[in-house]
Amino acid sequence: MEEYIKKLLEQVRFEKAHKAIGEEIRAHIENQIEANVLDGMDKETAEKKAVEDMGDPVETGIALDKVHRPQMAWGVVIVALFVAIVGTLIHVLMAKDPALEYLKYRNDIGSFIMFTVSGISVMLLLYLLDYITVAKYSKVVATCMIAVYMLGIFLRDKVYFMQLEWLDKTGHRTGWENADFPLPIKVLDLTSSFMNPPMLLLIPLYAGIIYKYKGQKYDGLIKSVLWLIIPSYIVSYRHNYVICLIFVLSMLVQLTFAIKKEWLKVSKIPVLITLWTTFSVFLGFVAKKEYERASGTVLRWGGEDGNLYERPTINANIDIVRAYMKQVKLFGNALLSSLGGKSYSPAQYSISDPGTRMILTYILTTGGLIVGIVVIATVVGLIVYGLVTVLKTKNQLGMVIGIGCMMWLISNTVVNILVGTGIIDDQGGGAFLPFVSNDKLVESYALLGILLSIYKYKNAYSQHIDINLRIDLKKLRLKKLK
């Protein structure tokens, strides 16, 4: 049997698939041996007959070689490129819009193209990486990322106070515009700006962290929950509760899958009910905080009689967006009349940050409902296609990594749709439409790159694989002796 398997595996060029194929073939032969023994054969004859029934090892190996080669999810790549083209066209039109003249100053279209190209490059680079290898170092990488992020926050705060102190001493009390800060402050400011790692990569790393606790009981659960709470809190520093909510939700879905697949040996139903009940309470807390932050806003406008009018509102920005949403057409601009007047103004003059968090508002009010639906459907289609693709992998670790990545993209898409249509407001400024907004472009494509890596090895790894790092003491001693 072992000789047969060895000869078969020699035909499979992708070595990472050897273990999974060997285990599968061995299990199949052993099952056939048991069946032959039950039919009255002796052990030796039963094994010989089982191996013969498998066919020629060379032919079988060649057939398996075709199946287990690294594969590219070309469908995801093509749809991603299509979304990139759609996003670029939207930002080109925005750059030509006279009402958004300030975007030319910000070089919106230039930065969008640059970050899109960078994002696609990162996506293809991550495709070349083995997600199993990354998962092995998940704790180390996550710890370093958190440490760098926290140090960056500390330095940014320190730079801010140093700048204020210098402005006060030199008499530049009006602000930073014309301030020529000393070299030490400039260097520290530049250093802190580079200490902002893409923290969303904690989500795929979290799957590797949970997997390292595989087989543990409630001690593993407690450690997994702590790895969920602490990074989410750190990422939401300065009270951006919506970002924190998205992180918690994405990681909680991963933890739920891990519990259902018995990575952690705990009572499934009570634990899952406790986790999701706690999350629901947290969701209510976030909703309450966001409501409190928006309350007390006063909406002010100038009347045609020259007087200033005002009235209290839950949120002035939501009021403006909702007013325009009522005027959205199937195609074309949504115009809103002035209070009590006959003049009409386009939405572009009232939408804040149309290139990022309010981009869906801009699309709906300038292109119309049909255009908005097409853009949303394109983005959602890419995410759903990616999720369906990742579910094809045999390896549970890869599946959980992919699910976490897709949850992050889905959550941000939903939040941006709610913000862009005036259902909720984005006080924290973190809402964006993946692949279309001029924000988090590289990070969004990076998650697709991780997805491509998972799909690449979908036939290489079995359901479970050991990712715990071990030091071979025997080899270490031999190296020292040499």
UniProtKB/TrEMBL annotation:
Keywords: Membrane, Transmembrane, Transmembrane helix. The keyword Transmembrane helix applies. The chain crosses the membrane at residues 72-94, 109-128, 140-156, 194-211, 240-257, 269-287, 359-388, 400-424. InterPro entries: Perm_prefix_1. This is Cell division protein FtsW, lipid II flippase. It comes from Butyrivibrio hungatei.
